[in-house]
């Protein structure tokens, strides 16, 4: 049994709406001789990371966005990676740069992120991009947090005055989505591995964002009847961070995994690349 009039938040529908709005913008850029271009940088041979990069490249091609794939061996040093990123910064034909994370151990990931030109930081991973997002004026907020906000907007789910609980505090997901919800006038509680009595806090939430990276972590009896549940997790076997069946019994709206937040994240990355192409104009 599910909550009355429950909404399944279809990420594919949201992603399609974003991409449809990009088509005319890409055509207008083409008339100026500009093809938006996303460069993805993959270090090492992690199968999951390689799959993500391939998915993003395929999404680019389907929409008419150029995609450059830079592959570096697992033994790449921080300095070598930064050098590769700086070359992309200097390449006028590249409008967006995505460093696939996590990078192999031994590389200073934060130093690598900081090497990305803020004008091409389409995944919102730099410190400056994070700060701009916190202040509410980032050109390119982190893609998954932006995708979560896009889903709430598409389905016209209220944020103002609601209590949002975010489970996870990573600098590219938990923290930025907390800031975005706060800027949208939600009251936000950000939880993490040291939060005491997490289930009791989640039970207070009107909006739950699960971004903890643990399969089926959020349980059904944690969800307040009528809450909106957004699952930003993706674990092996197409499993999210939310126990879907159990949580769906209580939620008024919930994202599935797959076909929830994931497709919207990719569509947001494409949008940011087009935004960057329009700003850079080359």
UniProtKB/TrEMBL annotation:
Its domain of life reads Bacteria
* Reactions catalysed: (6R)-5,10-methylene-5,6,7,8-tetrahydrofolate + NADP(+) = (6R)-5,10-methenyltetrahydrofolate + NADPH; (6R)-5,10-methenyltetrahydrofolate + H2O = (6R)-10-formyltetrahydrofolate + H(+)
Sorted alphabetically, the keyword list is: Amino-acid biosynthesis, Histidine biosynthesis, Hydrolase, Methionine biosynthesis, Multifunctional enzyme, NADP, One-carbon metabolism, Oxidoreductase, Purine biosynthesis
Gene name, Swiss-Prot/TrEMBL: folD
Give the binding site residues for NADP(+).
168-170
Q: Name one GO molecular function term.
A: methylenetetrahydrofolate dehydrogenase (NADP+) activity
The reply on keyword Hydrolase is yes
Quote the protein name from its UniProt record.
Bifunctional protein FolD
> What's one Pfam family here?
THF_DHG_CYH
Instruction: State the EC number(s).
Output: 1.5.1.5, 3.5.4.9
Q: Which SUPFAM superfamilies match?
A: Aminoacid dehydrogenase-like, N-terminal domain, NAD(P)-binding Rossmann-fold domains
Q: Which family does it belong to?
A: Belongs to the tetrahydrofolate dehydrogenase/cyclohydrolase family.
Record keyword Zinc-finger present: no
Give residue ranges for domain Tetrahydrofolate dehydrogenase/cyclohydrolase catalytic.
9-123
Tell me the route in metabolism or biology where this protein functions: One-carbon metabolism; tetrahydrofolate interconversion
* Assembly description: Homodimer.
Domain Tetrahydrofolate dehydrogenase/cyclohydrolase NAD(P)-binding, first and last residues per copy: 142-279
């Amino acid at each position: 049994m599910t909550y009355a009039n429950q909404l399944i938040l279809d990420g594919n529908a949201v992603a399609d709406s974003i991409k449809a709005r990009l088509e005319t913008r890409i055509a207008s850029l083409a008339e100026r001789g500009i093809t938006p271009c996303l460069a993805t940088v993959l270090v090492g041979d992690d199968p999951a990371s390689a799959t993500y990069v391939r998915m993003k490249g395929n999404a680019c091609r389907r929409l008419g966005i150029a995609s450059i794939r830079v592959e570096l061996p697992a033994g790449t040093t921080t300095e070598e990676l930064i050098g590769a990123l700086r070359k992309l910064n200097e390449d006028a034909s590249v409008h967006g740069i995505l460093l696939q994370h996590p990078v192999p151990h031994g590389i200073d990931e934060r130093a690598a992120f900081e090497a990305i030109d803020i004008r091409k930081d389409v995944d919102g991973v730099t410190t400056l991009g994070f700060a701009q997002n916190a202040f509410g004026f980032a050109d390119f907020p982190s893609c998954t947090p932006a995708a979560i906000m896009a889903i709430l907007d598409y389905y016209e789910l209220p944020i103002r005055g609601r209590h949002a609980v975010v489970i996870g505090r990573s600098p590219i997901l938990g923290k930025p989505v907390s800031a975005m919800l706060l800027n949208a006038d939600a009251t936000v509680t950000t939880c993490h591995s040291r939060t005491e009595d997490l289930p009791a806090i989640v039970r207070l939430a009107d909006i739950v964002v699960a971004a903890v990276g643990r399969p089926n972590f959020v349980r059904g009896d944690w969800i307040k009847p009528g809450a909106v549940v957004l699952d930003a997790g993706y674990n092996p076997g197409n499993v999210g961070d939310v126990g879907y069946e159990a949580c769906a019994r209580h939620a008024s709206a919930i994202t599935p995994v797959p076909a929830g937040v994931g497709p919207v994240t990719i569509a947001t990355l494409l949008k940011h690349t087009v935004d960057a192409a329009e700003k850079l104009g080359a």
